[in-house]
Amino acid sequence: MTMLKGKTAVITGGSRGIGCAVALMMAENGADIAVIFSGSEAAANETVASADKFGVKARAYQCDVSDFAQSKIVCENIFKEFGKIDILVNNAGITKDGLMLAMSENDFDSVIDVNLKGAFNFARHLSRYIMKSPAGRIINISSVSGIAGNAGQANYSASKAGLIGLTKTIAKELASRNVTCNAIAPGFIETDMTATLPETVLEKVQTAIPLKRMGRTEEVAALALFLASDAASYITGEVIKVDGGMYA
Ligand code: NDP
After folding, report:
1. Radius of gyration of the chain measured on its C-alpha atoms
2. pLDDT tens digit string along 13-26?
3. pTM score, whole prediction
4. Distance of alpha carbon 25 from alpha carbon 220, whole angstroms
5. Which residue minimizes the CA distance to atom 25 of ligand 1?
6. Is 61 a catalytic residue?
7. Is 18 near ligand 1, meaning CB less than 6 Å away?
8. Which of 15, 67, 144, 193 to mutate to test the pocket of ligand 1 (most atoms within 8 A of CB)?
9. If you write DSSP's letter for every residue of 86-129 in order, what string do you get?
């Protein structure tokens, strides 16, 4: 499988969950990968070790994506190591759920900082390299919560809706450089993030999903792979749901 042969991809939050699946599917398809993690060093090293088996170059970098200055240094180091960057997947994300009426300032700010500002930071610092690629790609992992809103997720939904605005703007600003920018909006996907949801909530959610099950990380990664590939060269500024029909 060589859809991304010769490309270099940076995946934030590539240590676990959806980001790990994206990193490994891209590596399996020939891309060299840089995996960004914040705390899970062992998991990031595991992603890198699994990618190594596909015969590509893989490295892990510790970085808090919400930190503008730290992100700049890490992006420069990635470029020094790989010599070029074609693909950025802004996937790092957190939740701090709670009803808006009781939400603390810190819980609002920290979710916006990681999910939205983190994506800006990496797009901002890597665009100068991605613009030199003949087919640059930026893929932002948003959420159906950013499209439809979700009670208990004022901070998260706002961050994911913000990502859609960021996506459409980057798509317009970088189109002349042949860089596309699209967003993926997953529904409920089986990862550590959703593992903490109470059983009752999960049951209710699955009933509401026409396909009657949660999604798998590979089902999101498959779309990221397609959007990163040459096959998606005329798609930009789009938001594509991977949600089992929940918000169709
Ligand atoms: P996980 O909690 O499984 O993984 C989150 C990843 O983000 C980890 O690799 C984590 O790294 C990284 N991360 C978190 N904070 C930071 C930070 N400050 N700096 C750098 N990396 C960070 O989440 P999922 O795989 O479920 O989610 C991935 C993305 O998909 C998120 O943006 C999420 O909002 C989105 N999404 C998920 C859905 C789902 O149902 N799971 C649905 C819709 C969207 P580390 O472990 O090192 O901290």
Report:
1. 17
2. 999 999 999 999 99
3. 0.98
4. 10
5. 17
6. no
7. yes
8. 193
9. -EEEE-------B-GGG--HHHHHHHHIIIIIHHHHHHHHHHHH
Q: What are the tokens at 171?
A: 């798509």
Candidate from 10, 11, 18, 202 with most ligand 1 atoms within 8 A of CB, to mutate: 18
Ligand 1 centroid to 13 CA: how many Å? 6
CA distances to 32, 46, 210, 215, 231 from 2, rounded to whole Å, are: 12, 22, 33, 25, 12
Q: What are phi and psi of 131, to 5 degrees?
A: -65, -20
pLDDT in tens, 196-218: 888 888 888 889 999 999 999 99
Does residue 125's CB lie within 6 angstroms of at least one atom of ligand 1?
Answer: no
* Residues 142 and 160: beta-carbon distance below 8 Å: yes
**How many Å lie between the centroid of ligand 1 and the Cα of residue 84?**
25
